[in-house]
Amino acid sequence: MKMKNLRVKIQEKLELNSFGPQYLEHNERVYKIKIWNNDSFLITDVTNAGKRGTVCNELSVNSNYGAPDLAFWNELLATHTTELLKATTDKILPPELEKPNFKFYFREVESKRLLALDLSTIKPLKTEPKKWTLPHVVRAIVNGQYEGLRCKYRHLDDTCEDFGKGEIKDPINFVKGIVEDPSGWWTHQQTDGVVTVCCHSFDSNEFKPKIEPTKKVKPVKTPEVSRRKFDIGCGHLGNGLLVWNRNKEVSGDFEKVAHINADREITYYIENLPSEVLTQVESYAKTNPSVSTSQPEIKVFNEGNPTEKNVYEAKKEARIERLRERAKQKHEFADNNGFDLFSEEKSGIPFGQPLVGSPQRMRQQRKHREKIANKIERGMEARNYAHDLEVRADAAESRRAIDSDDPEAIRKINEKIQSIKDGNEWAIAANAKMRKLKTWQDAHDYFIKLDDDDSKRIVTHLIQRKSFYAIPPTQIRAYYFGTDTAEIRRLEKRLKGLRYMGENSINFSVGEITVKEESGQIQVHFPDKPVKEFRLKLRRGFCLKWSRYSAAWVRKRTPSINNRYINELKNVLLNVEYER
Questions:
Q1: What tens digit of pLDDT does each residue of 71-103 get?
Q2: Which of 200, 181, 106 is nearest to 360 (CA)?
Q3: b/e per residue, 348-374, with b = 16+ CB within 10 A?
Q4: Which residues pair with 109 in a beta bridge?
Q5: Cα gap 271→253, rounded to integer Å
Q6: Domain residue spans of the chain
Q7: Which of 22, 178, 207, 557 has CB 3.0 to 4.6 Å from 149, enough for a Cys bridge?
Q8: Which residues pair with 167 in a beta bridge?
Q9: Tens digits of per-residue pLDDT, 268-298?
């Protein structure tokens, strides 16, 4: 491995009589080997040491009671060093290493709990921080941005005298202790600029930072948008054509890329788009005919392969697919963080073993077990959340409610009204037949002899309601089957509102403020951020809320939004104030 500033020495072979850490390199990976008491050893893959978000694998090998002296060296380290190093990285023990004299344990250590081998990866401080933290201390000491690093005192348990006072001659080893055993360490900067670094209250050290501020050079940022992948689609929406990116979803819908109005004017929602995307959007604008705002059918166009699926159905399917994909990810996370983490193979802790060793070692073991318990708890929460996501996906898939932004809403409501009317007519005819009969038994005996569909339907209903006539009087009500005219009136009222919204679209401007109707919403676009009092008035007085997806203040378009609402909104927008 190529390292600019390696803090350790890479050895060519292991030494039996060395009880300090030894470092070997194999397959471009670095391993630390520590031998304990001539009966056990620990191998750590320290290639990723110091890298946040990663882990370092460890293999611990203990000799069983009664094993021959130096068995760990004669049977393992001296002959199977390469296999042990590979097993540490893969966390899989090959069959030739499974020997009766030893116990093997694998575990993972957070890389941030190990000091990096290559000190050049620890960047120096550019300016002195306002509040010093331990990471600042590590960066300053490793890069020599200090002077006068010394130990003020170290109090022992059995004496009141100070111990270890004087200059710290090995600053890297001092930093290593802070990184790899951070419990109890804290730092504070005094009024004279000196930074103290203490462990609890018995170990106090200090240094004076020496940081030369560097000139800030603004790097040329490469827009992230140009590196993204786009899957462009478009469809008629409102008074023009909406272009979206199918590779990304925002708030349950495809990401908006651009809008082309009836005059072929393009409004982009994303800056620094790739040239091929710009070319594709411009081609849509050239071939886009004038689109009427009352166009009923909204189509999604795949590149060269148009389908008859409207945007509403595409959004619904995308939401269901997204919920199931999230549920799958949560299930995978739960499977990887189950109760088997407590097993001896994964935890590295033999079953029933108590906390052993020094207080520091016991604290490390306790933290290790707490981490395992926290992982299992998060796994259980993920499994419960995955179940909720699956329930939501099933509910969305079986949902039969009629939404106002559905292009087929008017047709579906008309069909529902007709279905209820047919049911009412059948109920009136059935009641006329039932009225001639007196009791439930008379009705049952009469209709069960008939073979037509209406009679079978009546018999089924009678059987379902038999318990209502178990106790006298058993006289059947004159209007046995009820009708539902209230639902018809409600649907007709809603149908009237949908037609009103279709005939009265909202699209106007007040100065630089644009108000338009899009995706079943009223969207208010401001050139700048209004003041807090004005935003509060929009929320409470007009039921508008900020949408990051639309980058506008929005509310659902309903029939209750009439001319009075629009006129009041216009008057309020005339007096808008912006934050400066």
A1: 777 778 878 888 888 888 888 888 888 888 888
A2: 181
A3: bbeeeeeeeeeeeeeebbeebeeebee
A4: 56
A5: 19
A6: 22-113, 122-209, 224-309, 315-398, 409-484, 504-573
A7: 207
A8: 150
A9: 888 788 888 888 888 888 776 544 333 333 3
How far apart CA 513 and CA 528 sit, in angstroms, is: 9
Start-end of H helices in 296-408: 311-336, 344-347, 359-398
Most confidently predicted of 207-216, 231-240, 399-408: 399-408
**Backbone φ and ψ of 71, nearest 5°:** -65, -35
Alpha-carbon distances, residue 351 vs 300, 343, 354 (angstroms)? 59, 8, 9
Q: Round to whole Å and give the CA distance between 208 and 150.
A: 10
Distance of alpha carbon 157 from alpha carbon 364, whole angstroms: 22
Residue 416's SS3 state is helix
56: Cβ contacts below 8 Å, ≥ 6 apart: 44, 45, 46, 47, 48, 49, 108, 109, 110, 111, 114
**Beta-carbon contacts of residue 578 (< 8 Å; ≥ 6 apart):** 526, 527, 528, 529, 530, 531
**Residue 469 per-residue DSSP state:** G
**Whole-Å CA distances, 526 to 315, 471, 502, 552, 556:** 27, 70, 25, 7, 18
Amino acid at 561: I
What CA–CA distances, in Å, run from 64 to 16, 100, 104, 347, 372?
A: 19, 8, 11, 19, 26
Q: Interhelix angle for 359-398 vs 311-336, to 10°? A: 150
Alpha-carbon distance values, 149 to 138, 167, 205, 229 (Å)? 12, 6, 7, 51
Assigned token pair, 522: 């009223």
Q: Which of 138-147, 479-488, 512-521 has the lowest mean pLDDT?
A: 479-488
Provide the mean pLDDT of the chain. Answer: 82
DSSP-derived secondary structure for 106-170:
EEEEEGGGS--SBGGGSPPPSS--SS--HHHHHHHHHTT-EEEEEEEEEB-TT-SSB-S-EE-S-
Outline where 448-562 has alpha helix (H). 453-464, 485-503, 532-542
Q: What is the side-by-side order of every strand in the sheet holding 552-556? A: 507-510, 513-518, 521-525, 552-556, 545-547
- Residue 570 corresponds to which tokens in the numbers above? 């216009």
For residues 459 and 451, give the distance between their C-alpha atoms in angstroms, rounded to a whole number. 11
**Collapsed DSSP state (helix, strand, coil) of residue 56:** strand
